[in-house]
Amino acid sequence: MSNELMLKYGCNPNQKPSRVFMKDGGELPITVLCGRPGYINLLDALNGYQLVRELKRATGLPAATSFKHVSPAGAAVGLPLSDTLKKIYFVDKKAELSPLACAYARARGADRMSSFGDFIALSDVCDLSTAKLIAKEVSDGVVAPGYDEDALALLKEKRKGAYNIIQIDPKYAPAPVEQKDVYGVTFEQGRNELVIDEALLREIVTENKELPESAKRDLLIALITLKYTQSNSVCYAYDGQAIGIGAGQQSRIHCTRLAGNKADNWFLRQHPKVLGLKFVKGLGRADRDNAIDVYISEEWEDVLGDEVWEKTFAVRPEPLTMAEKKAWIAQQGDVALGSDAFFPFGDNIERARKSGVKYIAQPCGSIRDDNVIEVCNKYGMVMAKTGIRLFHH
Asked: Do 234 and 373 belong to one domain?
């Protein structure tokens, strides 16, 4: 380790010189084992590792996240995968996956379009099972507290030996006060050391107060994910993973819609018509992802011409109608929803309901809290008042 790492450039090629360093002269908590990570890579790595470390602490399960441009595209804990999830995540049905590998498959698979070219963060030592999944995906790099010897050897072969592999010291403790410069002005604040655990879910303000353990777990996943997502942000979570993240929107309802649409797409990938798509032999993962995304969108027939269809599908698929999509999504339920700040209007709850949301955690504090709670009660939802805001910039 050293106290400085020179970078190729900053956010953009014209932003030189660029480096990361320790102001106190101490050693960096990271070691680059392979590759040459960039400015944004390291922002994703450091934010991502904090996220998975907190998920592991809150749930006791190995965790993984897929980061893109300083916000997570997916985050998950290591619960087993069903055969359906293995299929939509492009995992071999017969593959024996470690809990950490399951966490990564879920994090990557939540929003595969957004995860393309991601930076991965793992809570635990990277094993061969996880490395095999990473090796098949288009990714910029990975950060973990360590690597098994065979896993490291495999990852070092990725991108012809240029794949970014970072080891982080799990014992590192940052200073309690952090700084950053904007336009030559230094900002300083206390680090956000808020512990997110079940204690935040105790105050339930709705008529329905039944909050099962699975919902508590998913709400914690949503809230911890939001802690490291650019605000405004909303997160839908289900079955141990984020399934829709709306980041960086100026309007709360736009966050809810964006995240809800992503959650809907995650559900639709499991529709029998989507699972039954027959692709031409040898079609790459990214091309399959693009084709599926277009297929489940409203304008799919207008986007791809006959020539593209012939290069993509071995058998031309039947349309997935709007009625079929609505009926499929309507079957979904028990989804958890977290918000990094209060919902100002009940329209957010109305939109969330359409994506199967039943459990909600949000700070409350709006002058229209009564209206928001009223809408929750109308649909039998459970809402916990956390009393804390999770803005992240």
From this structure: yes
Q: Are residues 236 and 284 in the same domain?
A: no
Contacts of 329 (CB under 8 A, 6+ apart): 264, 267, 268, 354, 355, 356
392 is catalytic: no
**Does some domain include residue 323?**
no
Statement to judge: residues 33 and 155 lie in one domain:
yes
Sign of the Cα pseudo-torsion (320, 321, 326, 327, in order): negative
The yes-or-no answer on residue 68 being catalytic is yes
> Quick one: pLDDT band at residue 389, thresholds 50, 70, 90?
very high
393 included as an active-site residue: yes
Whichever domain contains 228, its CATH number is 3.40.140.20
Residue (of 152, 146, 161) closest to 132 by Cα position: 152
The residue from 41, 164, 232, 265 that is catalytic is: 232
Told to judge if 271 belongs to the known catalytic residues of this protein, a careful annotator would answer: no
Given the residues 69, 87, 156, 354, the one annotated as active site: 69
Do 209 and 134 share a structural domain? no
Number of compact structural domains in the chain: 3
CA angle 174, 177, 178 (to 5 degrees): 80
pLDDT digits (tens, 9 = 90+) for 73-121: 999 999 999 999 999 999 998 888 999 999 999 999 999 989 999 999 9
Among 173, 204, 237, residue at a domain's last position: 173
**Among 41, 47, 68, 265, which one carries the catalytic annotation?**
68
Residue 191's CB: how many other CB atoms inside 10 A? 11
Q: Quote the domain boundaries for residue 314.
A: 278-318
Pairing status of strand 63-68 against strand 118-122 = antiparallel
pLDDT tens digit sequence for 115-147? 999 999 999 999 999 999 999 999 999 999 999
The answer on 78 and 10 residing in a single domain is yes
